[in-house]
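Record type: monomer structure entry
Structure origin: computed from sequence
Chain ID: A
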Amino acid sequence: MSPKTRKLSHVYTVDGLRTLALVAVVVFHMWTTVMPGGFLGVVIFFVLAGFFTSRNMVLEQVDRSYPPLLPYYRKKFIRLYLPLLAMVVLVNLWTFIVQPNIYPNAIHATPSVLLGYNNYFQLASEMSYFEMHGNFQPYTHLWALAMEMQFYLLYPVLIRIISAVVRSNVNKIAIVLWVLAFLSAGYMWFHYTPGSDPTNVYYSTLARAHAFLIGGAFAFSNVLSLEKISLAKVSDGDFNGPHGYIEPLAERGFYQMGPTPFHSILALMLMLCMIVPFFTSSYQDPFIFRGGMLIYSIVVGLFIVLIYHDDSILTPFMASKPMRVIAKRSYSYFIWQYVIMVLFAAGLAHSTMPQWFSNLLQLFLLVVIGEVFYRFLEKGPAKRPYYKTPELAAGITPILACATAVMFIVAVASPADKVSNDADIIAQKIEESEQRRQARDEAKAAREAQQARIQAESSQTASASALATHSAEASSGAEAQRTDSQSASSSATTTSAPAPKVEIPKADEHYGYSPEQLKKLSEVKVTMVGDSVLDMAQDDLYTFMPELDLDAKISRQMTQGVEILQEKSNKQELGDVIVVALGSNGNFNKQNLETLLSIAAGRPLLMVNTVTPGGIEEKVNAMLKEFSDAHDNVHLVDWYGSAKTHSEWFYNDATHPKPSGAKVYDKLIMDKILEVI
């Protein structure tokens, strides 16, 4: 069978690899703390796309057959767009009717989803893939699909350009792809800033292209030799097709093609190298973006080559029926899982339903929807003859065009400033809060400078008076002059600028504190560290506690808060009470809490728990509850218990409090301060 006429066979063990990648991505979305490196599953998808897209292109180079690209694009179009367009239409209709707070986000992202530039749309919108709590963007995950679309569109053209330059030499094509892959990884390295949000390189096609290119490089380097081995096996008459007879897979779980112990051990080691980082890696690790993804992509490429003949010891597991069933539906599962999660998170934002039960419902719904989409929009069209004829142009294309046109018109006609989750309002409130805090800090600095100047003037006046009266003989006269000197000093002080007097705020209907409580609050020195939630609620805290030292910033995480408090401790600037209001932007570990305990050094340490949609809320609050129960000087401020079910206290992101909610938040903190001082 010549390379020109034969059909490349299916690699069944790769079905298991595709399933593992899907599971990693799903778990990362739903249980980030369980699999913090699950985002590497996308790297596996990219390498697989590069490898298997390149297989047929390798044969094109060998027999110099360069078929037109239009059939290739049409095949990819049908494969990707039928399920995608149906999903987008259903989600847009659902959010428009049932969850209107999400609809603007969905409709504004629709053009970028359908045209394959969603990754750049999110970059331009300054959306962070890693800090999306309470920001209900149902199409966030489709940045990866957009990148695949860009690859499928540009890669064939790139290969033909390279082929023309190197005269269809597959080995030289592989070398060029390796060079381009390393350039892409270098781009990621130099554009990544350690300690910052990595979204700018995570969404960049130039930075992520190395995974596709490495898959292609492995294909161009190995497919010919791998297929020749397969053909040699076929010539023995023991197998039916390049990969052999299918029944042995069903009966024995793998093909008896002679795997050596070394072959099996190496396959197992590579598999562990792919799975272990799911549990040990984190997007906060600089190594991931400075060589880590490159190395991971190479490991995946090596694994594909090693398992190509389905003769590994891993094949009984990787090519098992459950793995193959999930792999066949992986595309439908992928496009729906994040959408379902976001819709649930928004719908249950103010519900106390256990997260495990919510996740169980989500998985059940995902299986049902995935099965329907697979049978009617993936499996069905692929087996219906009319999908392989020109009738496609007369049938499916107009439907797609009409639906796309309608959604495009709606997206363009919608007011650009109509954004869900009150994002603009929240951003404005945070900015105004920052400006007021800056003004307070400047006023405080001015007062301190004025007091220092007054003290200096008083010292100079006292010195001059003492010198003038030094020669006085009578003690009574000297005393009189000292009295006059003090009067003059007092007069000078009053004339320069009187030191501001701290006024105790009056109690109102929101707080109802007694005069004694107000006095205590006005005198206590408190150090607070928090994120944007505390930032939006700081005004009344400053009003009641003028000695407050508050440091709050948007997107701040616990590790950063610990560093701030450690620095204040080193400078001996900590107050009598420490308040930590962090956890909305990401999980943390027990070591962070133990460090806080050490920094507090016996001072009352108040931990404010969090209200934010998604699984992180439950994990964070459980850790804070356990921490406060274990230590006498640690006290829990139960914001979750007081506010979770009060949707009227929150903006639409279900995380940031409105003014009415901010007052409840402030009172909870001040009540706890009064309790511990």
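Annotation 1: The chain has two domains: 12-418, 515-676.
Annotation 2: The CA atoms of residues 266 and 306 lie 8 Å apart.
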